[in-house]
Amino acid sequence: MSGLGGIMAPSMSAEVIEKDGTKYAEIIWAGTRVEKTRFFSPAESSFQFGIVAHGAGYQEDPHYHHAVERTIEDLQQMMVVQSGVVDVQLFDDDRRLFKTVRLRQGDAIVLVHGIHAIEVIEDLQALSVKQGPFLGDEVDKVAVEPS
Fold first, then answer.
1. 16 lies in which domain range?
2. How many domains is the chain built from?
3. What's the CA gap between 37 and 35, in Å, rounded?
4. What CA–CA distance (Å, rounded) separates 121 from 64?
5. Does residue 90 lie within any of the structural domains?
6. Per the domain annotation, does 88 fall within a domain?
7. CA distance 58 to 87
8. What pTM, to 2 d.p., does this model score?
9. In whole angstroms, what is the distance from residue 34 CA to residue 53 CA?
10. Residue 64 domain-assigned (yes or no)
11. What is the pLDDT of residues 42-74, one digit of tens each?
12. Peptide bond before 146: cis, by omega within 30 degrees of 0?
């Protein structure tokens, strides 16, 4: 991974961003191709992040997923850029910016831990997914003054 001015540019298909042994984000870059379905998140992660891939003619049997009580202590967020360019800023637990990742059309990120912010570089439209239920900004969103 190489960067210019602290902004990281893709050099691989999938990437994990860690600092001091803590995972902050997972990224799947737009050009990533897999032969068969592959999830990049570990099975124990509360949010599963991967690519579904099947050959022509594949047909999955009708099914559903068991309703199983799960305890989730974090709130992860995924974003897939549909159009535009956005810088995702990642801050460590001391509120210091330690990485900026530039995402473009087709890039996807899951924010696993820590403080994050975005700066829109070119008009942005992105699909965003978070665990629910959403309890409102006053409960779920904590504004932070960076160091």
1. 2-54+70-130
2. 1
3. 7
4. 40
5. yes
6. yes
7. 37
8. 0.83
9. 7
10. no
11. 888 888 889 999 999 999 999 998 998 988 888
12. no
If you search the block for the tokens 């691989």, which residue do you land on? 12
In this structure, are residues 97 and 89 in contact, taking their beta carbons and an 8 Å threshold?
Answer: yes
Q: For residue 15, give the nearest of 116, 110, 121, 97 by alpha carbon.
A: 110
Cβ contact 76:48 at 8 Å: no
Contact yes or no for 80/127 (Cβ under 8 A)? yes
What is the C-alpha to C-alpha distance for residues 142 and 17, in angstroms, rounded to an integer? 22
Indicate the range of 3-12, 23-32, 57-66 predicted with least confidence: 3-12
Find out whether 56 and 108 touch, Cβ atoms under 8 Å: no
What are the structure tokens assigned to 127, written together? 């699909």
User: Cα 27 to chain center, whole Å?
Assistant: 6
Instruction: Give, in order, the Cα–Cα distances in Å from 57 to each of 32, 33, 53.
Output: 22, 19, 12
Instruction: Encode the chain in three state secondary structure.
Output: CEEECCEEECCCCEEEEEECCEEEEEEECCCCCCCCCEECCCCCCCCCCEECCCCCCCCCCCCCCCCCCCCCCCCCEEEEEEEEEEEEEEECCCCCEEEEEEECCCCEEEECCCEEEEEEEEEEEEEEEECCCCCCHHHHCCCCCCC
Is there a domain that residue 62 lies in? no
Q: What is the mean pLDDT of residues 117-134?
A: 93
